[in-house]
Amino acid sequence: MDSRLLALNADITTLAIDAIVNAARPSLLGGGGVDGAIHRAAGPELLAACRRLGGCEPGDAKLTPGFALPARYVIHTVGPVWRGGGHGEAALLASCYRRALFVAADRRLASVAFPCISTGAYGYPFDAAARLAVDTVAETLALLPEIERVLFVCHAERDLAVYLRLLAGRPL
Ligand code: AR6
To answer: What is the average pLDDT value for the chain, to the nearest integer?
Structure first.
């Protein structure tokens, strides 16, 4: 596996890195889960900046400054709502990871931290989402040598164990 990929357990809002990715909703106007945590930590300027973006389609990604966060930027992406797997969910989730990395590379950002997009309120089965995340990021990084580090930020020991197995090339 690409040595630029790492997984860890952390609150993503505490990371001092070029960009953290937000698992947002299409309005980009805040919500619960990691989205709520990012807005609380970044302060009200983030909501004002998101308002100016005019929303985001599922599978797309848009950039704002990080404001009060230790991260320089936030890349907002909108994952798919899990509806059983037959509604293009995998293609949309892969697009979130790909688009976020291209947005980062366009800004010459070298380090990006992802939460486990769609695996909370949006209900995507965790192991399948993690496998898709690792495969998509590895494929995309092959096109983006300027990106030096990608973190998969988990929020539970069990979730981290899944990522560590995938990154080690072991079966789940
Ligand atoms: N740091 C890292 N990971 C976190 C944190 C945190 N501080 N908090 C939660 N997670 P979710 P979704 C993990 O529900 O499924 C929002 O209301 C969590 O354990 O935040 O994409 C939006 O506005 C889970 O693995 O995002 C949307 O409406 C992961 O973050 C909707 O939820 C994603 O869970 C998006 O749903």
So the answer is: 97
Q: pTM, whole model, 2 decimals?
A: 0.98
| Lining residues, ligand 1, CB within 6 Å | 11-13, 23-25, 31-35, 37, 79, 115-122, 153, 155
In a domain, 172, yes or no: no
Provide the pLDDT for residue 1.
78
Ligand 1 centroid, distance to 159 Cα (angstroms): 13
The total domain count for the chain is 1
Which CATH number do you get for residue 27?
A: 3.40.220.10
Give strand ranges (E) for the chain: 5-9, 19-24, 61-65, 73-78, 111-114, 149-154
The question of whether 127 is a catalytic residue gets the answer: no
Query: Could you identify the atom of ligand 1 that is nearest to the CA of residue 126?
Result: 25
Q: Which domain holds residue 73?
A: 5-167
